[in-house]
Amino acid sequence: MLTHLASPVTVNWGITARCNFVCSHCFSRLDRSPELSGDDARRVVDILAAQGVMFLNYGTGEPLLRGDLFPLTEYAVGKGMKVTMNSNGSLIGPAAADRIREAGFHSVGISIDSADPGTHDGFRRMPGSFEKAVGAARLLRQRGIPLSVSSVVCRVNHRDFPALVSLAKELGAHTIDLHNFKCSGMGGLNKERLDLSPEEWKGFYEAAVPLRRSEKGIDIAFDDPILSLLGEEEQGKLVAGSVCGKLSLYIRPDGEITPCGFIPVTIGHILKDDFGKVWNDSKVLAHLRTKAAAGKCGGCAKFSSCLGGCTARAYAVHGAWDAPDPHCWLGD
After folding, report:
1. pLDDT (average), residues 21-40
2. From CA 45, how far away is CA 304, in angstroms rounded?
3. Residue 235 class from Cβ within 10 Å (0-12 exposed, 13-18 middle, 19+ buried)?
4. Which of the listed residues 15, 97, 99, 322 has the most CB atoms within 10 Å of its CB?
């Protein structure tokens, strides 16, 4: 397998850290960095397009709180990039859905964490958020906008995911992303309450993987390198272990570059440093691409495919790049 590509396929861009929700797991709620101006944001697009970045995803806070979201998206689409975003759905009414279509979004992900309204609203700490998210999903599909559903798997929903998959399918989503719980930002502060034990993660994947194999109406995505512990290798997988720093990068609202949104280690600035040089010469990225087998990973037959699991989780919990993923259930 490759250690990394010549340039990132995807850049996840936190165009704003502002959000109208106060979710218990959010990695960006503690981010107080200022936003780039509209002119600087277009310069970012120019740089990424020149580097051959194919996908630009708006994440972090609630993208629709940024006033120039739609003209910025039109600018990026005009540069040949496929633009996506993750939204809590609360600000997507008929007019916003029309503008999303007109701006040329490639796809929109709506966060729904449970098929039970009370569970979703409690996790998002926002009464009525389930109804708004489902309504936003329906508005997007009515306009022919490709839809994905984004869910954070944790203690509140890890046994109820089949109903969540059914809901996403009923809403017309092409994909449901079952994101593994991270330990960064508010997720780190609430880890003891929300995260699963390694054995519980094993149980979740042992139930979820067969559903992914049998489900024909929707793609179920995990993007978790510890799946290799079950012999579940991703088809078409280009790199071993985490994709951050190998296929993707993250840009904070102020323009600082990090390996991913869950790793708060700055490796450059999109407007002050040469992007190609950061990608190719960063010592941090070089380490992530060639991780060593530390701790219980030493001698593990799965290390060559998982490379210690999720680097963001390992770094958040242990403060070391090469530490084993705390979700790993082998050797405990």
Report:
1. 80
2. 35
3. exposed
4. 15
pLDDT tens per residue across span 164-219: 999 999 999 999 999 888 876 666 667 778 899 999 999 999 999 999 999 989 99
Has this prediction a pTM greater than 0.85? yes
CA gap 186, 168 in Å, rounded: 26
What SS3 string covers 75-143?
HHHHCCCEEEEEECCCCCCHHHHHHHHHHCCCEEEEECCCCCHHHHHHHHCCCCHHHHHHHHHHHHHHC
CA distance 76 to 87: 18
Tokens of 23: 């979710």
Residue 5 confidence (pLDDT): 80
What is the per-residue pLDDT for 60? 81
187 vs 207: CA distance, rounded Å: 24
Can you tell me the distance from the alpha carbon of 284 to that of 279, in angstroms, rounded to the nearest whole number? Answer: 10
Both tokens assigned to 53: 């970045």
Q: Which of 251, 225, 234, 235 is nearest to 304 (CA)?
A: 225
Q: How far apart are CA 252 and CA 192, in angstroms?
A: 27
- In sequence order, which ranges of the chain are alpha helices (DSSP H)? 38-50, 69-78, 94-103, 117-124, 129-142, 161-170, 186-189, 191-194, 198-214, 275-281, 283-289, 303-306, 311-318
Edge-to-edge order in the sheet of strand 10-13? 219-221, 175-180, 147-153, 107-111, 82-87, 55-58, 10-13, 248-251, 256-258, 268-269
Q: What span, in angstroms and rounded, lies between the C-alpha atoms of 212 and 219?
A: 7
- In 3D, which of 5, 76, 12, 14 has the Cα closest to residue 47? 76
CA–CA dist 194, 59 (Å, integer)? 21
Higher pLDDT, 194 or 251: 251
For a pLDDT cut of 90, what percent of the chain falls above it? 73
